[in-house]
């Protein structure tokens, strides 16, 4: 008897899950189609994109990008197009993730999620843009500065593109600190004064990061450290306001 009840319960759960699985499949399909279409569109002007990118980052530098395989020019353009498509379609993917999870939330939770996603998207693009325009060129200068003066840097173009994308992506992630702090404090992982208590260790880590990614002068390091310090203080304040007792 209990075995039959268990089978009925499992069958009922499976029956309830099927519409959600179908909805998830549909959302993923939409995202995949848009990503592929955006990649194809970006490929059509990939030469302009690559020229603008290298002109901004490598102008006046003693560096040459090279291909070391017959297929690399093609894969390089595909990679550049795909990266541009990913960064350009992030809001679309976030929209469909939101549409998938919203039906399961309460009205108050829906408002909170909408605010979190909006703030997170804005902060991500802000961090990625600042990383690309300011931190990345300086980081490249620092890395190339280690090359002996009688040598020319010969860098694989695909590796260079990967370095740029990872750097800009993590720059965007760093700017997510306030949103991450808000979410973790809401679910009870971060307590009210946790980030305030860890401030001195965080400040040391921030200045070490600033020293690594900038030229060895106090002004550049300060310019890099101040935004990270502000983000940490904002995160700490958000945790203090929102965290559970």
What's the short version?
This protein is mainly alpha-helical and 245 residues long. The chain has helices at 2-44, 46-58, 72-101, 107-144, 157-174, 177-186, 194-197, 199-213, 218-242, and strands at 63-66, 153-156. It is 80% helix and 3% strand.
Architecture overview:
The chain has 245 residues and is mainly α. It has one domain. 80% of the residues lie in helices and 3% in strands. A two-stranded parallel sheet has the order 1-2. The longest helix has 43 residues, at 2-44. The radius of gyration is 23 Å and the shape is flat. The mean pLDDT is 82.
Helices and strands, in order, run as HHEHHEHHHHH
Shape label: flat
> Mind summarizing the main beta sheet?
2 strands, parallel
* Percent strand: under 5%
- N- to C-terminal separation? 46 Å
Instruction: Round the Cα radius of gyration to an integer and report it.
Output: 23 Å
Low-confidence stretches: none
Strand order of the largest sheet: 1-2
Helix/strand-derived category reads mainly alpha
The helix tally amounts to 9
Number of DSSP strand runs: 2
Q: How many domains, in number, for the residues?
A: 1
Helix content: over 70%
Q: For the residues shown, what is the average pLDDT?
A: 82
């Amino acid at each position: 008897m209990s075995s039959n009840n268990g089978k009925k319960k499992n069958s009922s759960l499976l029956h309830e899950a099927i519409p959600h699985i179908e909805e998830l499949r549909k959302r993923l399909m939409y995202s995949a189609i848009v990503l592929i279409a955006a990649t194809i569109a970006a490929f059509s002007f990939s030469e302009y994109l690559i020229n603008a990118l290298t002109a901004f980052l490598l102008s006046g530098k003693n560096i040459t990008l090279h291909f070391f395989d017959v297929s690399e020019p093609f894969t390089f353009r595909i990679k550049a197009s795909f990266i541009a498509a990913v960064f350009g379609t992030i809001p679309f993917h976030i929209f469909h993730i939101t549409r998938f999870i919203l039906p399961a939330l309460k009205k108050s939770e829906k408002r909170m999620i909408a605010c979190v996603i909006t703030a997170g998207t804005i902060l991500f693009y802000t961090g990625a843009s600042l990383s690309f325009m300011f931190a990345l060129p300086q980081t490249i200068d620092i890395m190339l500065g280690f090359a002996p003066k009688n040598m020319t840097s010969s860098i694989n173009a695909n590796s260079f593109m990967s370095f740029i994308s990872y750097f800009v992506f993590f720059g965007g992630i760093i700017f997510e600190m306030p949103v991450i702090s808000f979410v973790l404090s809401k679910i009870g992982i971060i307590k009210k004064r946790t980030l305030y208590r860890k401030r001195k260790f965080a400040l040391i880590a921030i200045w070490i990061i600033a020293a690594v990614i900038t030229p060895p002068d106090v002004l550049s390091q300060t310019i890099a450290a101040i935004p990270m310090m502000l983000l940490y203080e904002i995160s700490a304040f958000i945790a203090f306001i929102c965290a559970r007792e």
